[in-house]
User: What shape does this take?
Amino acid sequence: MPKFNDISDFENLLKEQMSGHSAPPPVDAWTAISSSTAQAGGIISSLSTYFNASVTLVKTGLIIVSIGTISTVGYFQTINSFEIPQTKEENTLSLPESITTDSQSTFVTIELADNTIKSPNENRTSRRVDSKKTNPSRSASVPLTVDTSSSTPQNYTNQPIKTLENKSTTPPRITAPNYNPCVGETVVLKASEKGDWFLNETKVASNTAAYNAQCRDIGTYTYYFKTAEITTSTSLTVTEFNGQIIKTQAENGHYSFSLSNQNLIANWFINNKLYSTNAPFINVALETVGKHQIKAVVINHPCAKTLTFDVQLAPIGHFEAINIFTVGNDGLNDTYKVNISGYDNFSIQIFNSNSNLVFSTLDPEEGWDGRINNIGIECPQGEYFARVSYKLKGELPQIKNIKLTLLRP
Assistant: This one.
């Protein structure tokens, strides 16, 4: 079917088709055709107008839809930002039973169904909640320090919801190895943190956790330890041991040693050999000539010292021998004997030049008269040898060889 650009193209085609007929169509026919053609043109024109109007309507619809979308978005933004009235009940935060604690923290986490968290310090009657910052699908975790020792929920009214610093108010502890030192000792005082040290009111150290306290005199001394917040103190009682060994001498070389303080006991030593333990005194016999050391180690005093006492024993025995004697009954050196006293034992032997024994005795008072065993024949004058063995009291045994001369008138 051919296409027509306008009504004139249709009229020209119709004339070409009708020109082949022998007779022209009646006037009424042309009139009808013109009328039909005019109607068709009107219809086409109406359709064109209709379609143009539809395009305009579509455009109008799109504009209306856009306006509606913008209005809808504005509407939802408006309903997400609304005023919440401030009531007194909102200032009271009730802790629900579903409080969970973290074993690694000192804080409690509270799961809240409502996302509106108000600060009681605010003076406004209402506040705006931003939907971008508050997500209804989430619950708020609020750190809050709570006394968990009570089994019933507690209400915290007008309390700001914030993290509290866990600062200890316990005073730092001062430790010392000995709170009752002796004179001359050094005690190291230690604290749990750094600070300044004072002895009474005098600062002795700064910004340190330890101090060496010198104990020079007897007395009680108070040391203060100060930080920016806390001051604490401790005391040292310095003592000194005062005591000595007292000697009491008895007869026959017996001695008694005791301590000047009767409340003390000690372990006793004589010449570094243990003699007695846990005793306030000792009784001892000293016989050996020379120096003896008595030592007492006090065991029931914090400042115990080792006390010593020296005893010097002088010789109590005596020995003297002569090397010439004369036999003549004149009363002068008629017998040979030695002078000895304070002895424990004694013996003497006399030999001639041929080493033959001519006299012996255990009694120093019995002398040799120049005869064999004092009963035999007379021994010729000349040189003889005497061997004397003896032990003086408190002394070691001794042996002496003496060369003597026998003279006759």
